[in-house]
Design a protein that fits this description.
The chain is about 35% helix and about 30% strand. It is an alpha+beta fold and about 140 residues long.
């Protein structure tokens, strides 16, 4: 049973691939002055450059290259998170990083091949529909 203050040790790796992010940065010139100083002392405003940033405003997944993989190091003797069912941030599975990279490449290649096959089928269907339409139009004009 998990009690307040319980913790576990996770020694592992994770990575994401195939994501495109948009960040926005606004750079402007700001001037400020206190109201009292402006009215009584005719102080000129203090001006300076400033910037504001919004990170990860928009995200696109670049399929078929979008993958999320993670794993624990098996050689790390202090991993204890697999003993806690409430630990769900990462998979509590021992995995090799290099095997994962090879597997991600294989997944990408398979998804790319499947995407190409789907595009070829759609292209063939469009060509068939275009041919049927041209036959129907030619048949209509000959009547």
């Amino acid at each position: 049973m998990i009690k307040a203050g319980d913790h576990c040790n996770y020694q592992g790796w994770w990575y994401k691939t195939g994501e495109l992010w948009v960040d926005i940065t606004i750079m402007n010139r700001e001037c400020n002055v206190g109201v009292y100083s402006y009215i009584n002392d005719s102080v000129d405003p203090r001006c300076f450059d400033n910037s504001y940033t919004l990170s990860k405003v928009k995200k696109w997944k670049l399929k078929p290259y979008n993958h999320y993989e993670n794993g624990m190091y098996e050689a790390a003797p202090m991993n204890s998170c697999q003993d806690y069912p409430a630990f769900n941030q990462r998979d509590a599975v021992f995995r090799s990083f290099m095997d994962s990279v090879k597997g991600s490449k294989k997944k990408s290649d398979e998804a790319e091949k499947k995407s190409k096959e789907t595009a070829d089928k759609a292209e063939a269907a469009a060509a068939g529909a275009k041919h049927a339409l041209s036959l129907a139009l030619s048949h209509k004009t000959t009547q």
